[in-house]
Amino acid sequence: MLDLDRLRALNTIAEYGSVSAAADVLGITTSAVSQQIAKLERETSSRLLERSGRGVRLTDAARLLVRHADRILALVAEAEADLEAQRGSVIGEIRIGTFATAARGLMPHVLRDVAGRHPQLTVQLHEADPRASVPQVLRGEFDLAVVQDWQNSPLPIPEGLQRAHLLDDPAEIALPDFHPLAGRDSLVFTELAEEKWIGAPPGDICHAWLAGTLRHGGVEPEIAHYASEYPTQLALVAAGIGIAVLPRLGRDLLPPGVLTIPVRPTLVRQLYAVWRTEAGRRPAVQAMVTALRAAAVGTVEETQVTYLPPPAHGPNGGR
């Protein structure tokens, strides 16, 4: 009898290329993953992994097993969803992947609401880039994910997943307060053609979006500095070495010396919840989507801030 946890461990190694990466994804130790594979090798009387540089390579037997494991794990997930739907109770555990600003600006409201309404449901939150979390939902590693879809950089949603729109999150341009454009009520992209930008690293969905949006607006971007976290980007903006795009969701207080200005046409990213089609029958998934939608309504109201230009005390502002 093949053990599901061991099949899942092999499947994750096949996807991520190493035992250590699989351990990170599964939330267990590297030793535990190795033990799972050793037991699976004894169960199947087959060698499954071979050393390949710093990683591992799947044997022919392992690749054969992975093809079956994909279908087996999908069937198990479908059976679990059917059983939970039949019971009609919001119980068990649900794993959610979400990107950083949604984890900060949306999920605290959701987790508090769900804990009060459904005390028998355990929710486990994982911070993950949408380009990683969508495949993880498809494989069943996450039950649900919150993802973002920027203008001019749509996020593909594979067959087998469903999605629900949560909110539209406007973004603005972050400038140092001594910037020549700092006193403006709004900006257009062509005014930013000569600026140096601070953006997310290549490979990040926000990087692709920034470059695509600026080119669409007739601006060839000069991205001078790369930083994954918005607080780091804003610290660089405050130092006067570039400008950045800043969404409203999950926004902390701006650091001294930084202000934001709307840009035309309006910059908007859309947030969605995504889940496997068969998992949509689970009361727990339905409850989470309901809580996400409710929290999104409140978050939209909280983030409708109005830009106020700085006091008219010269081009250097408070510096």
TrEMBL record:
GO cellular component: protein-DNA complex
Domain of life, per lineage: Bacteria
Start and end residues of each HTH lysR-type domain: 2-59
Alphabetical UniProt keywords: DNA-binding, Transcription, Transcription regulation
UniProt KW DNA-binding keyword: yes
Pfam families: HTH_1, LysR_substrate
One MF term in the entry's GO annotations: DNA-binding transcription factor activity
Transmembrane segments: none
Family: Belongs to the LysR transcriptional regulatory family.
Protein name per its UniProtKB record: Molybdate transport repressor ModE-like protein
Upper lineage: Bacteria, Bacillati, Actinomycetota, Actinomycetes, Streptosporangiales
